[in-house]
Here is the input.
Amino acid sequence: MFDDIPVEVGLIHVGERIRKNDMYVEFGGPDIKEKFELVRVRKSDQVTDGKITVIGPDISAMDPQKKYPFGILIEIAGSQLEEDIEGVIERRIHEYCNYIEGFMHLNQRYDIWVRLSKKAFNKGFTSLSYVGKVLERLLKSELPIIESMQITFYTDAKEISLVYEEAKKAYETRDARARGLTDEEVEVFYGCALCQSFAPSHVCVITPQRYANCGAISWFDGRAAARIDPKGPIFSIEKGVCLDKEMGEYSGVNESAKKRSLGEVNRVYLYSAFKYPHTSCGCFEGIAFYIPEVEGFGTVMRGYRDVTVNGLPFSTMADSTAGGRQVDGFHGISLEYMRSPKFLASDGGFARIVWMPSDLKEQLRSFIPPDLFDKIATEKDVKTIEELKKFLADREHPVCDRWEETALTPSEEIALHGPVYSVGDLPITSAGFKIIFKNARIYADRVTIQPVKSKKPEKEK
Here is the structure.
């Protein structure tokens, strides 16, 4: 696409994954605390058009296989630009960085993770200025209302801190603005298809009280994007008829999802993690995951490095949640959605949350009902499901009422479902793998277990 860029630039490279063995250098990611991407609208005399600056070591001066802090500050000016456009352009950074061959960009805002491949470096991609040129040209091409732009990259740990604080304040200001509006007060929602290159059947639905899964686009951001680029990846969705107020089902959302997913998704519940949950791409900030043993939900954010109370790390659950699928009990969410009154509203909201990492719990202190705060366990309180059960019972968490409502005696279980067999002590071995079910209840009208006999090849005639 560009003769002065040493690697190819185009849509064909979106979705490229760079594994550790193929990586030349890494920016941000889970091991780096301070990283960000921020767009600010400035006055025209504050922006030097075309200026690209790297503060800290550039790629050519970096140690191979090392991890570096990373910040991208894009400052733009234009007579028609408004602050509402900042978040929209920030999300475009993810898309356009992935146009670059050998340059992988994941996530958004304060959670970015970038890798450069050895192959790209060997082709001459030795400076972040190349990234700056691609971003400048593609953004100006898509949004002509940007009259001037300057881009600064930060790779120095000391220099990044001040701008990192500015970025966090900017995110919070935008998020707080959207909290004053309800879903019932508007006639239009917005959809975002930016992640369909990674998850073809996923369409993010953005409402005043349900932020985009990535946490980067509010309802106001969606409105601004749809106005300035009507044919772009962010578009309006007429609400249509409210089919189920509790679940958050709207005819217009269903029609849009069916059209945009090419028939893969026909119904969407905006406020529930069951039956027809909102799809998830892979850029979600966190996951709400169902814990059937306690009839409650755990929540975990992307940066959490330990295993959760169900014994699974974020990465494993993310694989089950992502891909544009509707998976019962696994729900990609944003941090801001957890601050919304509509957060899993039909499932019980915070009265159904039983576990979350301690730092996330502290972040949400002012949004968790005071009477529930001490009843939600963290990794500091419990390590296993059994410990979680005891914790919830001791603190009389509201989910305990569900245990009493759903508890059945053995005779009632048999009468309702038929015989219930426990296989905790009876491993199932198949194809060299041993499968052991623990604390599992399996209901079926009929179960047939047969050995698989290998077919002998027919004799040649």
Notes: The chain is about 25% helix and 20% strand. The radius of gyration is 25 Å. Residues 11-178 form a domain with the Bifunctional carbon monoxide dehydrogenase/acetyl-coa synthase(codh/acs), Chain M, domain 3 fold (CATH 3.30.1650.10). Residues 157-178 form the longest helix (22 residues).
